[in-house]
Amino acid sequence: MRVEQWLSRALVLTLLAVGGCPAVLDDNFTSLPGRDANAGDPGTAGRGATAGFVNGGAPDTGGTPSTGGMAGKAAASGSSTGGAGMAGMGPGGAGGDGAAPSTEPCADCTAEECCDGACADLAFDSKNCRACGTGCPGTTCDNSSCTNTCAQGFVDCNHNVVDGCEANAAVDPKNCGNCGIICGFQLVCVGGNCECPQGTADCDGNKENGCEADISSDPTKCGACGTPCSAGQRCSGGQCSCDVAFADCNLQPDDGCEASLTGDRSCGSCSLDCGLHGKCVAAGTCGCMPGYIDCDPGVPGCETPITDPDHCGTCTTVCPIATPACDGTACSTGCGALTRCGSSCVDTNVDLQNCGGCGKPVGLNQTCVAGKPECVAGFGDCDANPNDCEVRTDTDAAHCGNCATACKAGALCTGGSCACAPTTPKDCGSSCQQCCSDGQCSDGNSCTTDTCSNGVCSSGVACNGGPSLCCAATGCFQCCGDADCGVGKVCSANQCVDLTCPAPQIVCNNKCVNPTTDANNCSGCDAHCGLGRTCASSACTPKWVKTADPPVGFVARERSAYTAAGSKVFIWGGIDGAAKYLADGALYDPDTDTWAAVNPTGAPSARVLATAVWTGSVVVVWGGGNANADLTSGSRYDPATNTWQAISAMGAPAGKRGAYAFWTGSRVLIWGGTDRAGTAVAAGGLYDPVNDKWTSISTNFAPPARIDTLVGWTGSYMLLYSGNVGGNPGSKTYRYSPASNVWNNNLGDGPAARWGPFGTWDGKYLTAWSGASPALKMDGKVFEPVGDKWTTMAAMGQPTPRWAPNRQSGWSVQLKSGITLMVGGMGSTATTFFTNGGIYNSTTNSWSSVSAWPSGASHLWGVGVWTGTELMVWGGRTTTTATLTAVGERYRP
Question: How far is it, in rounded angstroms, from Cα 520 to Cα 529?
Fold first, then answer.
C-alpha cells in the first residue's frame, strides 16, 4: 500500500491566526474577479483591534478606479477611513459606469436592489455589497461592508488582509480544501477534494505520472482500475459493451460477447441460426452451403442435396423415369465422372452423405474433404471414436485450438485461443490470477493497504492509530465533511471545530444562515418563503404571489370540488363560463408552482358543488349535482397512481350539494348541504373507504337543516354553530361524535344569532367571528369544549365585518395551534366582496391584518385551500357578476 502523506492539513483557525476565517458561513463556492490589470497596488492599510474590511472610494462615472480602493482594517471605532492608497481591489475599487440598476427583470424586489436580473440585499450580499457588482474578496458582507470573516470555501492563505480570503479552496489545486494542500500531478480540485479528472485514474500507484489510466476507453481498465472488458467487448464511456459484430448469446458474463454475428449459428442476432448446411451470407441473411438447397423454407437450414433426383438442381425439378439420375444440374441416364448412389450423382470427395463411397455419411460436426471425414472449424475429435468431432476447440479450455492444448488455470478459451478471464486478468506464468504482485492491486487510494495474497487482492484500512477517516484518497483525517462531526460542529481543514455564527446569522442544520435575508430560513430555521418570494428583514415578501397558469385544457370554472391532497391542491369538476358541467381535474403543487392533469378515466360524472375530502392517501369525491338531479354517487382518487375507483352508493345519504365534510381518521364524515333548489338539507353519513361502506348519522338531537353554518373538527368530534335556519339566524352550538354516533345540543349559545360567520377549530377553540343576520356583525367569540363556554374575542385590529356564504366566498383555516387565518367574504350587499382579511391568535386574543390578494378578483364560487404552508385561492368569478377567471394566488403567513 502506498500511504502518501504529502498532502498536509491543519486547522483553519491555526493557519489563519492573522486576518483568518474564524467562522463558516455559507456554501457559496464562487470565483471572485481577478486583480484589475489597470489598477494600482493597494495602499498601506490601517489596522485596528477589531478590524473589518470596509468600503473604499465609491465607483465614479468615468470608469477610472477611485483612489482609496479597499481601505485597510479600520479601528474599533468603526471609522470607514483606512489608509489611502492607489486604486484598490475590493469593494469600491474599480470604477463603474454610474448606471442605476434596472428593476425591470425583478419587479418583485421590495427592500432589495435588482443586480444583474436578481434581487440582492446590498447590506449582506457578498456578491453585491453596498452596490451591485461590488463583491467581497472571499469574505462576507455585513451592514454594507465587507468583513474579515471568510465565506465557506474561501481561505486567507497569504495572510494579507488587503486581498481578503483570496483562495477558493473549493477549486484551487494549490489550496484544495485548505491552505497548502496541493493536488498532485494531473489531479484537479473538486469541491475541496483532490481528484483525477473525469475518465482517468491512478492505477499504477505512482503519483509521479499522475492519473495515467484512461478508464473511459481502455478495455483493460474500463470504468475503474482492474476491471478489464471480456472477449468481443469494447470500452466506451467507462462501460464495457459488445463490440461491433459480437453479442453475448449465452448470457455468460465471464466469456464476454462470445458470439460472432457473422457466424452461421448467430447470423446478425443471437436468435438467427442458419441451421443444417446453412451459411450466414450477410447480417440477418442465411444462405446455403455449396451442394445444398432449401426446399423447406419453414424449417431453418438447407436440408436437400442438389443431386437429389426429386429436387435436381432446384426444389421443383423432378427427374423422370427415362433419366432418373441427377448430377446436381440436370437429369441423365448416367453420372459420368460422378458416382451414382441410388438415383443421385454425387461427388464422393465432398458429399456429406456419401463421403468416400455411397452410404458413408460424415459424423457429428464433420465435413467431407477428399473423400474423408474431417472436423469442421472450431471442433476436434479428441476421443477414440473417429465418427464424430465431439469437442468445441474454439471454447473448450481443456482442448483450446486443438485436442492437445489446455489453457492454464484461470484462463478462458475464446476463438480457439487461451486468454486470462476477466475475473483472473493477470498472467502469472503458471496460471491466470486476480493479481501477481501488490502493485497490481493499487486502487489509487493512499488510505488503504492493497496487497496480493495467493493471487487475490485484499485491501485493509491504513487510517488506524490516529485519525480514522480517509478523505478523497489524500490522507487520513478526523473528518472529511460536516456530517462526520457532531451537532454544533463543522469540518474545517479536516478537523472538527465549533460552529459559530456572527450576528445576525444563526445555526440552522449545522450551517450558518442569515434569517433576515435567507428565503429558506426566513426569521428562523427551515422557515421557507416558497417560490416567488424573497426574505427581507426576517419577513417573506411579498405575502401574496400569483400562481402559474393551469395546464392547457383546464378551463376557468366555478363551484368545483377541492381539498388539500398532502402538500398539493386537488381541484375537480365544476361548471365553465358556457354553463357546461365539467368532469376533469388538476393537481397544483405550490412548492414547485406547477400543475398536473388528473386522469379523467373512472372519474365521477360531471357535476357542481361535489364534496372532496383527503384521507391521507386518497381523495374521496362525493355528491354534488347537475342540472337535473342531486347525486349520491362518487369515486376515490389516488394521486400516487393517478387512478379513480368508484365508491358504493348503497346506504349513502340523499344527494346534496356543498355538504360539510371531514376525515375522522377512519371515515369520511358528511353532513348538511342543499338540494338542487338551494333548500337546506340535514342528515348525513359516514363513509368507510377501506370497506367501501356507508353508515347513517343519527338524527336524535341533531340540528335542523341549515345553510351557511360554522363547523369545525376537533380530531374527535364535529362542532357546529349558527347558520341560516329557514330564513332565521341561529345561535345554538351542537357537538357530534362519530365514534358513538351521538349528538349533544345542550351546549352554551355562541355569539348573537347569525349566519355565515368566519372561523374554524384552531386546536383549542372553535373560533366564530362576524357573519350576518342579515346585518353584518362586528364581534366574535371562541368556544372551549372543556366547560362548554364561549369567550369574547378582541375587537381591536379585527378586519372589516363580513360574512362567508358557504362555498361562495370567505375561507377560514387553522395555520397552527391557536392561529386562524380568515380571508375573503361578502359585504352588506350582493355586489360587495373582500380580498383581504385577518389572522386571529386565540392564545393572546389579538388580531393581525392580511393584505389583499393582488389580482383583485373576487374568486366567487372559487377554490380556497390551505396546504399546510400556504393558502391558495383560485378560479371562480372575477366579481359577483362578471366572467370566470383562471387566475390563482397563494398566501404565506
Answer: 6
> What phi-psi label fits residue 854: left (phi over 0), alpha (psi between -120 and 50 degrees) or beta?
alpha
C-alpha dist (Å) from residue 644 to 598, 604, 631, 651: 10, 9, 18, 21
Question: 46 falls in which pLDDT band (50, 70, 90)?
Answer: very low
The single residue listed with the C-alpha cell 357537538 is 735
Contact indicator for 571, 615 with CB cutoff of 8 Å: no
**Contact at 8 Å (CB) between 181 and 6?**
no
pLDDT at 160: 67
Q: Scanning the structure block, which residue is given the C-alpha cell 354516533?
A: 741
Q: Are 327 and 307 in contact, with CB atoms under 8 Å apart?
A: yes
**DSSP-based three-state secondary structure for 412:** strand
- DSSP letter assigned to residue 340: E
Q: Which amino acid is at 570?
A: F
Q: How far apart are CA 783 and CA 785, in angstroms?
A: 6
Shortest CA distance to 123 belongs to which of 138, 105, 108, 141?
Answer: 141
- β-strand partners of 535: 540
How far is it, in rounded angstroms, from Cα 473 to Cα 776? 74
Which string of DSSP letters, residue by residue, matches 548-569?
Answer: PPPPTT----BS-EEEEETTEE
3-state secondary structure of 171: coil
Residues 772, 776, 781, 785, Cα dihedral to 10°: 10
Cβ atoms 168, 179 nearer than 8 A? no
Helix (H, G, I), strand (E, B), or coil: what is residue 255? helix
Question: For residue 199, what are the CA distances in angstroms to 170, 422, 434, 445, 486?
Answer: 20, 21, 23, 16, 35
Angle at 566 between CA 565 and CA 571, to 5 degrees: 20
Q: Are 682 and 649 in contact (CB under 8 A)?
A: no
The 3-state DSSP composition of the chain as helix, strand, coil percent (nearest 5) reads 5, 30, 65
CB atoms under 10 Å from CB of 632, counted, come to: 18
Dihedral in degrees, nearest 10, Cα atoms 576, 580, 585, 589: 0
Q: Helix (H, G, I), strand (E, B), or coil: what is residue 123? A: coil
Could you tell me if 366 and 388 are in contact, meaning their C-beta atoms sit under 8 angstroms apart?
A: yes
pTM listed for this prediction: 0.53
Rounded Cα distance, 272 and 262, in Å: 11
What does the pLDDT look like over 518-563, one tens digit per residue? Answer: 999 999 999 999 999 999 999 999 999 999 999 999 999 999 999 9
Look at phi and psi of residue 125 and say left if phi exceeds 0, alpha if psi is from -120 to 50, else beta: beta
The amino acid sitting at 518 is: D
Distance CA 381, CA 391 (A): 6
> b vs e for 433-472, b when ≥16 Cβ sit within 10 Å of the residue's Cβ?
bbbbebebbbbbbbbbbbebeebebeeeebbeeebebbbb
What's the grid cell of residue 417? 485461443
pLDDT band (50, 70, 90) for residue 404:
very high
| Alpha carbons 95 and 74: distance in angstroms, whole number | 22
Cell of 341: 448412389
Q: In whole angstroms, what is the distance from residue 826 CA to residue 811 CA?
A: 11
Give the 3-state DSSP-derived string for 97-109, with helices as H, strands as E and coil as C.
CCCCCCCCCCCCC
Domains of the chain: 701-852 (2.120.10.80)
**102 neighbors 113 (Cβ within 8 angstroms):** no
Question: Using 50, 70 and 90 to split pLDDT, how confident is the model at 92?
Answer: very low
pLDDT for residue 181: 78
